[in-house]
Amino acid sequence: MPDYGHELTFGTFLTPSNADPQVPVALAVLTEEAGLDLVTFQDHPYQPRFLDTWTLLSYVAARTSRVHLSANVLNLPLRPPAVLARAVASLDLLSGGRAELGLGAGAFWDAISAMGGGRLTPGQGVDALSEAIDVIRGLWDTSTRVPLRAGGDHHAVDGAKRGPAPVHDVGIWLGAYKPRMLRLVGTKADGWLPSEGYLQPGDLARGNAAVDEAAAEAGRDPREIRRLYNLTPGQGSLVGPPSRWVEALVALALEDGVGTFILGTDEPAVIEAYGAEVAPAVREAVAAERARAGTATAPVRSAAALARRVDGIAYDDAPSGVEAVEPGDRRYAEVRSTYMRRGAPGLVLRPRTVDEVAASLTWARGQRGPLAVRSGGHGISGRSTNDGGVVLDLAHLDSVEVVDETTRRVRLGAGATWGAVAAAIARRGWAVSSGDYGGVGVGGLATTGGIGLLGRLHGLTIDHVVAYQVVLADGSVHDVSADAEPELFWGLRGAGGNLGVVTAVEIEASEVPDVVFAQVVFDATDPGGLIDRWGTLVQDAPRELTSFLHVSAGGRDRGPMAQAMTVWASSDTDAAVAALEPFLDAGPVLDQRAQVTPYARIIGPVAKHHDGGAPPVSRSGLLPRMTPAAGAALGEVLLSGEASLLQLRAVGGAVNDVAADATAYAHRSQAFSVTSFAGRLDRAGLDAVWDRQAYPHMDGLYLSFETDPRPERLLDAFPPATLSRLRALKRTYDPDHVFDQNFPIDPSA
Questions:
Q1: If both were cysteines, with which of 520, 547, 661, 713 could 566 make a disulfide (CB 3.0 to 4.6 Å apart)?
Q2: What's the domain range around 542?
Q3: 604-643 pLDDT, tens per residue?
Q4: Cβ–Cβ contacts within 10 Å for residue 1, how many?
Q5: Angle at which helices 53-63 and 22-33 pack, to 10 degrees?
Q6: Which superkingdom heads the taxonomic lineage of this protein's source (predicted)?
Q7: What is the CATH number of the domain that holds 61?
Q8: Is 391 in a helix, a strand, or coil?
Q9: Count of structural domains, the chain
Q10: Residue 193 exposure: Cα atoms within 13 Å on the Cβ side
């Protein structure tokens, strides 16, 4: 196979000399400035004239922003693979996906032995390298929580915890020359990395053939394995002027399949010429020949990965340039699930721009299975993933931009999290009431309602939204506000995911000084009484006070317990104490604490890593007012044995100042949102006790916390007049009912 169709990349092979430690760093920076793609350093830990290569790579990662980084190659006998796996993954995470892993079996055994590395025969060295690859890949595989047991006689782990996973598919490239090493490349590696100076004429072709044969025997496509080549100016292929270099490198790409050309030099002028003259000319010439020959250049997937594809999804026709994650991809475990639900989608698309969202949506409409849209993935319902369908994951649309300082107007990408938003605007003394957890995504909350810990003073999140950017079912992009398509603007504030894919939200933040945040843990042996007393205090408190109560049913070793999270939205500690002290009489206090803190420290940034579980079972309702009867009924739900957790969130105060018909969230007279979670997968028990005890006290429900699939829940979510307006909007903007996963409103009903 003369040309494997790999995207061409160009790099440098630098000497890590410590005579002037900043010289190799400067050459690495120059490599990036010259437009090249890769910086590599030799690794000889026993050489006192050299900087430690791993330390140098880490330092260079901090001095650069684009180039990928690798040793060329790491000396495995002195780099334990389990530690190396975590080091590479850490550097990849810190550098934004720029770490690669060049590995060698070892040489210079006297020096290695002198450093305590032991001595291996050539055959043992190959065995050790093979075992090391298994250990490294196993530790990077976080798709399972089962501890890793891998390796063999030379490198083994027994019950090691997995992770972290790299942020991108780190290439494992092997420096190999002899038959067993070449077979190992074909069987397990991602790249073959020889140096031209060690090869005789014909060795490159013979090595490719050996790698390809081993790959085929292992069920791999030879194109999965990148061919890299170390070259030295003035020798071999690189003699004469740069124009002759271009001819030689073009031939190596088209006739020998080399995809990465690494220049071994420490001369700045040569590096600059390589980036400015040679690399562009080689790319242009190879691209032209490939176009003439019809050479396939798309990334190649393994046979094992292809076998995991879902029938009915046209994977090869997915929108060009959009990040696509399939079952079997390393990143699949990170994007398949939500906070509460473990999903198995057929494909996850991760667009970076609104145009990519539009292209992805248009393509997804033609595929089989359900279509889910995800902003943060924290939704209790789990509707932002699916089984066998397509997921549009907006995580890359995560910008936070101040549009107008005077009006405190902020533009938020739908994939941003509220913790990141809170941190970004806190320095201005601003905040947005937005839930109680920093990992919640902007898009979901800002279209459903937004019940937050500042809500009784500042209202719902949607009450401060002034504009949306939304991609509609037909792929068109609309900027919507009270002046532009006001009826759609009305619907987007409360209809959840029914009307389109929101890609950006413009919102007016509030001026929020430091707040008092209090946490109290109660014995909840009498849950009904505790809920009644707590709820009565909350609904009668000044608006500065917003409180959430979480009541757990307990288990074998302890009885029911409750935690109240309360914010006094002011730094006036005297007023806070006066408002908070009565809560200490709501029930037996087990623990209490309070502090003055910025709101952003309560809703702090949270790393998103969702691995879900079984689909959650929950019931949700909106309680008009707390009464002894309502408290007792909720206590019965908790003590029934069918509920593991009750959550109550205050939604009165400023939430109720807005007219019921002002937004599609029409529930403007209730005091609390109440949610119950089952402790088992079968929902019949929870439904029965909720319908009997709690439901008679409720008036409406909040979309984000309800998982009951019965159609009457739609009537609880949207009163008749609201539902009628939303059906009209669906007939206008989504007549084909593309968005049918989140409390679906059928336009034909």
A1: 547
A2: 515-597+617-717
A3: 888 767 878 888 899 999 999 999 999 999 999 999 999 9
A4: 11
A5: 50
A6: Bacteria
A7: 3.20.20.30
A8: strand
A9: 3
A10: 26
